[in-house]
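anyone seen this seq b4? input:
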Amino acid sequence: MMSNQFLSVARNAVLRQMVRHSSRDHSNFSKIGKREVVGYGRSGEPVYYDCVEYPMPAIRWQEPTPQLLALREKEKGDWKKLSIDEKKALYRASFCQTFAEFKHPTGEWKGCIGWTLVFTSIAIVFSLWMNAYVYDELPESFSEESRKAQLKRMLDLEVNPIHGLSSKWDYENKRWK
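predicted toks r here
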């Protein structure tokens, strides 16, 4: 008797706190229907979602039915008298999924990688098409002979002789240091 009274006082206190801190209290309470508020939850609003970080949602998963209310009355007695199916029904009335169910991998990563590869291949094909049909030929300065001539000219002019390219050239032996 004393524990039931304590639970109802605690639930009322939590409900008052939720109403006080919630900015959208009327719209949220109209959405939950007759589901029982059983805790503070993650955000202090009466919403249900399964989360590893906050395993106790603010409201129960299902609205009470006559069969469920009968099970809740039976629950107040000895739990050894409850069958496994009745215990599972009580659990499913409060929670949508078990930890094993909502932590189970969904395989969503396969779709993400698949779409990433599709978009990457489209970008590569687009780039190849642009190189073939849109861009002009590379200028003459990109040829190997032209680049060697540019390097020789930079060494002859002693460009950046302290820390740059010319500092790594041995001018007496005509080779790289």
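Helices lie at 2-21, 25-31, 66-75, 84-94, 99-103, 108-134, 144-156. The radius of gyration is 36 Å. kinda curious what u guys think
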